[in-house]
Design brief:
It comes from Fopius arisanus. The protein has 374 residues and is mainly beta. Helices cover 4% and strands 44% of the residues. Strands 3, 5, 6, 8, 9, 10 and 18 form a 7-stranded mixed β-sheet that branches. Strands 7-4-2-1-21 form a 5-stranded mixed β-sheet. A 5-stranded mixed β-sheet has the order 13-20-19-15-16, with no helix packed on it.
Length: 374
């Protein structure tokens, strides 16, 4: 089947530079991240004048509200991950990708290919949901490609000859399921014989966004206390690694029930409750982690952050996790018994389709001007 090949295009305000990208989402496979393969088209005036064009891949971390930036205070840090001269080209041994080959044929001799690679430990794109009264750029981690004209890569840039195009670094759910989450917790009482046992099991480890979670609860009351109610909830954990105490927990969905209660001494209760981690019921809640998004896209809860090892956390990132908690309430004197089970919430990897594309059939989509990233 022959289909059109979609390419994103963004021009500098003076129209002298044009950036072309085949996609704006790049997948992190833990072992490595997809490379950014693009094309820069330079106007003939710039070619004749001998100007130098530089390209950078920048990770931007905003950790405070933009409207609070007063008297020189800045709550944003930009880290340049890749910086190189694109024109005149300095690399001659790099192999062009199929996308670059097709664009080079279409754009002619004024087009130059370039490739940027994400560092191994770079974080995924995550933003924190703003409140109704907030404006400006949201807190979180974002990426953008910066193309500019200058004498060197640290030269002051001019807006008229600069392109900033946002891109996103994402992760997809593993194709192989892990072990089924299960935990058993027990509580004994100082002045009472016996113990209370709570067993919690999830139907699987990996869930897609919007998919219901079946929580199997089994309570064995071998004490002389009485369980008055049960509460199950999904909790989103945010670990802002740049802060020493930057850990936040937010309840995404919760179910409270007294069905089958009170659970009297010597009895057992087994039941299944369903939870659905979804953004629809949390759109008014400030500080919830969302997947980093591009313009004209719908928001969704941030996917779980997958790490090769726990000690690989980057000092520039936000680590997102999810867990199911089940609480048994025993009254004012009996206290509570809590069990917690982590799980993974992610998007599934889309199926790959083979596309046969003629070089002359390329759809170019112009990216509208966005707020300057600088």
């Amino acid at each position: 089947m022959v289909v059109n090949f979609k390419v994103f295009k963004k021009c500098s305000p003076n129209g002298k530079l044009s950036l072309y990208l085949g996609k704006r989402e790049f997948v992190d496979y833990l072992s490595g991240t997809e490379a950014i393969d693009g094309i820069l088209r330079v106007d003939q005036d710039y070619i004749d004048s001998g100007r130098k064009i530089f390209g950078q891949l920048i990770c931007s971390f905003r950790y405070g509200r933009e409207e609070d930036e007063v008297m020189g205070l800045n709550f944003q840090k930009d880290l340049c991950l890749v910086s190189e001269q694109i024109y005149p080209p300095q690399k001659t041994d790099s192999n062009a990708t199929r996308l670059q080959e097709r664009l080079l044929k279409k754009l002619g001799s004024s087009a130059v290919p370039f490739t940027f690679n994400f560092p191994q430990s770079s974080p995924a794109s995550v933003t924190l949901q703003q409140g109704k009264e907030e404006s400006g750029n949201p807190c979180g981690v974002s990426y953008y490609i910066k193309i500019f004209c200058g004498e060197n890569d640290s030269d002051l840039t001019h807006k008229r000859s600069t392109i900033c195009l946002g891109v996103r670094k994402i992760q997809f759910a593993p194709t192989k399921e892990g072990r089924q989450p299960c935990t058993v917790v027990r509580k004994d009482f100082l002045l009472s014989p016996g113990e209370l046992e709570l067993e919690v099991t999830l139907d699987k480890q990996i869930y897609n966004h919007g998919e219901p979670i079946a929580v199997n609860i089994c309570v064995r009351n071998n004490s002389n206390k009485m369980v008055k109610k049960i509460k199950a909830l999904v909790q989103q954990g945010i670990d802002v690694v740049i802060f020493q105490n930057g850990q936040f927990r937010t309840v995404i969905d919760a179910v409270e029930t007294q069905d089958g209660c009170p659970i009297s001494p010597g009895s057992t209760l087994q039941k299944v409750v369903y939870l659905r981690p979804d953004l629809e019921c949390n759109r008014e809640r400030r500080g919830i982690a969302l997947d980093g998004r591009l313009k004209r896209e719908d928001d969704q809860l941030a996917s779980s952050t997958l790490l090769t090892t726990p000690d690989v956390k980057d000092s520039f990132g936000i680590v997102v996790s999810y867990a199911v908690k089940v609480k048994l309430y025993l009254g004012a004197l009996g206290g509570e018994l809590t069990a917690e089970l982590p799980f993974i919430l992610m998007r599934p990897k889309p199926s790959e389709k083979i596309k046969l594309v003629p070089s002359e059939s390329v759809m170019i989509e112009d990216v509208p001007e966005e707020k300057n990233k600088e």
